[in-house]
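re: the backbone from monday

yeah here it is again, tokenized this time
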């Protein structure tokens, strides 16, 4: 049995539950409590699911929205841990993620 930790997901967002990507707006607006899985792919549940959703978005018309959601989640997490001397790996990962999102956004805009 996988231990779970209850976290609140901010609306609008994308969450990963039971290995599946969920983006149902009604579900998210209800601020459903989501179990955190022990998946090695999700190390940072506050922002990584949104980042992955942006990376995996195939519809060009939704890409910028996904990027903005991921950037907002990362910014919120950075504010939450900014005064902490811990979380160095997560801070580095967020910097890398923001760089990747900027590159994707720049490429998307250039393709117009």
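seq for it, each position gets an aa:
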């Amino acid at each position: 049995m996988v231990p779970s930790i209850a976290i609140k997901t901010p609306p609008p967002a994308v969450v990963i539950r039971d290995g599946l990507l969920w983006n149902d707006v009604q579900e998210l607006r209800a601020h459903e409590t989501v179990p955190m899985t022990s998946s090695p792919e999700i190390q940072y549940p506050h922002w990584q699911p949104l980042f992955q959703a942006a990376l995996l978005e195939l519809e060009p018309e939704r890409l910028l929205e996904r990027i903005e959601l991921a950037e907002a989640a990362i910014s919120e997490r950075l504010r939450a841990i900014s005064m902490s001397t811990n979380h160095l790996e997560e801070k580095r990962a967020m910097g890398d993620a923001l760089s990747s999102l900027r590159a994707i956004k720049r490429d998307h805009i250039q393709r117009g």
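The radius of gyration is 14 Å. The first strand starts at residue 6 and ends at 8.
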